[in-house]
UniProtKB/TrEMBL annotation:
<dbReference type="InterPro" id="IPR000834">
    <property type="entry name" value="Peptidase_M14"/>
</dbReference>
<dbReference type="GO" id="GO:0005615">
    <property type="term" value="C:extracellular space"/>
</dbReference>
<dbReference type="GO" id="GO:0006508">
    <property type="term" value="P:proteolysis"/>
</dbReference>
<comment type="similarity">
    <text>Belongs to the peptidase M14 family.</text>
</comment>
<keyword id="KW-0645">Protease</keyword>
<keyword id="KW-0378">Hydrolase</keyword>
<dbReference type="Pfam" id="PF00246">
    <property type="entry name" value="Peptidase_M14"/>
</dbReference>
<keyword id="KW-0862">Zinc</keyword>
<dbReference type="GO" id="GO:0008270">
    <property type="term" value="F:zinc ion binding"/>
</dbReference>
<protein>
    <submittedName>
        <fullName>Peptidase M14</fullName>
    </submittedName>
</protein>
<feature type="active site" description="Proton donor/acceptor">
    <location>
        <position position="310"/>
    </location>
</feature>
<dbReference type="GO" id="GO:0004181">
    <property type="term" value="F:metallocarboxypeptidase activity"/>
</dbReference>
<keyword id="KW-0482">Metalloprotease</keyword>
<feature type="domain" description="Peptidase M14">
    <location>
        <begin position="63"/>
        <end position="350"/>
    </location>
</feature>
Length: 486
């Protein structure tokens, strides 16, 4: 293992970010663990020793996975680590009827414990194989280093990481960018670019057309899977991996939408991430303009910070696995700049209460707490060929998460702020909103018996970095059967 990553000169790509060097040192120490572990069973054969010293992914893989590999590995990981890894089946099958799988990773993974969530995905575009590899390797990295690497162990105490390495399974199995869309035969002309199908701002004429964006906003089951995950978890950071170009992209997708209300926070986290992987951080619309991508929808729906990572410099999927390894581990042509450490920086932020909100309180043991929000988002006006403009469509949006009160009755629920960014796409069209422009909404918090009977409802208004304590005295009294009958 080279020590090049510890050299101060490695900060030169972003010279102002010298502070991140401490993470670089930790990375080199941490990476030695899986690399050595993977080769531990090898014989004393000199060739085997050479292989141990070569840069290695956490899983030790050297070739691209098939969909069977992904699915089998996720099942095996959950079977091998029952308290740490939970296998999930997403609610919607693909257009071709395939299941979409993922895993969740955290300590005591089966508990509804109110931890903040990092959601990491790959392969929205079916021909972007490296995006699934990096997603899967980061899962191995966390799982194999739990209990060994102090940073990983600490973060798995504080946060939950949800992995969906292959979102567009139909496109992946035929090595095509688009999904199958409505074509029963998966005809290429009918394929939907599911990264143009998210409903927020959907239909704008930037970077998509009536076929590739799909028949309606959020019409595709693959997109609905990601939306359901995001709406039903407190996803404080979202990373959707794509290829290629070494960029880390944040909203807006279209320049006319303007900066997000959280631009300063978004830019700071972008800087922390790109200091690690050496990528170029930018607003997505300044690369090329589109609408209907994942991070704009997820940010304006939840205020969690969503990013598109364009990993690799090579788009091709053949003969590029050495670059997959070097990009992840920060070796070879990417010496000292690793995507692994960029993911860790994102996870650090996802876990940090300063970056989201916390609702604390006491409730009866076993009481089921829910927080929910309802509001509308809007698509973009669509200018048709005859210059007729179709008006924006309303997108009713319901967020809901659940926590089960632990035995000691105390809970600390890490959530996204209830205060919502003012969206640029509205009922009347596109209006740039800009920094600091928020809508003061509340979470509706209910305290219920496990049977679902709601005993108390309160409203909680909380902004980024804030903590609010709630008293659920009525729920406590009624839960224990001493309250007024009704
Ligand atoms: Zn892509």
């Amino acid at each position: 293992m080279s020590s090049g990553g510890t050299s101060p000169s490695t900060a030169s790509v972003l010279g102002k970010r010298v502070l991140t060097l401490t993470l670089g040192v930790g990375f080199l120490g941490g990476l030695g663990i899986p690399a050595a572990g993977a080769g531990a069973a090898a014989t004393a054969d000199p060739q085997a020793i050479v292989q141990q010293q070569a840069p290695s992914l956490p899983s030790g893989r050297t070739t691209y996975r098939t969909i069977t590999d992904y699915n089998d590995e996720m099942l095996a990981l959950s079977a091998r680590h029952p308290g740490l890894v939970k296998h999930i089946t997403l609610p919607h099958k693909t257009r071709q009827g395939r299941e979409v799988y993922g895993i969740e990773v955290t300590h005591d993974v089966g508990a509804a414990d109110g931890k903040p969530v990092l959601l990491m995905m790959g392969v929205h575009h079916g021909n972007e194989w490296p995006s699934g590899e990096h997603t899967m390797e980061f899962a191995y990295d966390l799982i194999d280093n739990d209990g060994k690497d102090p940073q990983v162990t600490r973060l798995l105490d504080k946060a939950r990481v949800v992995f969906v390495p292959v979102v567009n399974v139909d496109g992946f199995v035929i090595n095509r960018r688009t999904s199958c869309g409505l074509s029963p035969t998966c005809a290429s002309s009918a394929g939907v670019d599911i990264n143009r199908n998210y409903p927020f701002g959907w239909g704008s004429n930037a970077g998509s057309n009536a076929t590739t964006r799909g028949p309606g906003p959020g019409s595709e089951p693959e997109v609905q899977n990601v939306m359901d995950l995001t709406k039903n978890n407190q996803v404080t950071v979202l990373i959707t991996n794509h290829t290629s170009g070494h960029t880390v992209l944040r909203p807006p997708l279209e320049k006319r939408a303007g900066d997000t209300p959280d631009e300063a926070v978004y830019a700071a986290l972008t800087d922390a991430i790109t200091a690690e992987n050496g990528y170029t951080g930018m607003k997505s619309g300044f690369d090329y303009e589109t609408t209907g991508e994942t991070p704009d929808w997820s940010y304006y729906a939840t205020r969690g910070l969503g990013f598109t990572f364009e990993i690799m410099k090579t788009q091709s999927t053949s003969n590029t696995y050495s670059e997959v390894i070097e990009d992840y581990t920060g070796t070879g042509r990417y010496e000292g700049k690793s995507n692994r450490e960029a993911f860790m920086a994102a996870l650090e932020y996802a876990a940090d209460p300063a970056g989201h909100s916390v609702i604390t309180g006491k409730a009866p043991k076993g009481a089921v707490l829910k927080i929910a929000k309802d509001f509308d988002l809007w698509t973009a006006p669509i200018r048709q060929a005859n210059n007729v403009v179709d008006p924006p469509q309303r997108i009713p949006t319901h967020l809901q998460s659940t926590l089960v009160t632990p035995a000691n009755g105390k809970f600390a629920w890490h959530v996204n702020p209830s205060v919502r960014p003012a969206p640029a796409y509205t009922e009347t069209g596109v209006v740039a909103t800009g920094p600091g422009n928020f809508i003061k909404e509340s979470w509706t918090l209910t305290c219920a018996r496990p049977t679902g009977e709601v005993l108390e409802t309160v409203h909680v208004t909380v902004d980024r970095g804030e903590q609010v304590d709630v008293r659920l005295q009525e729920c406590k009294t009624r839960f224990n059967g001493n309250g007024p009958k009704n």
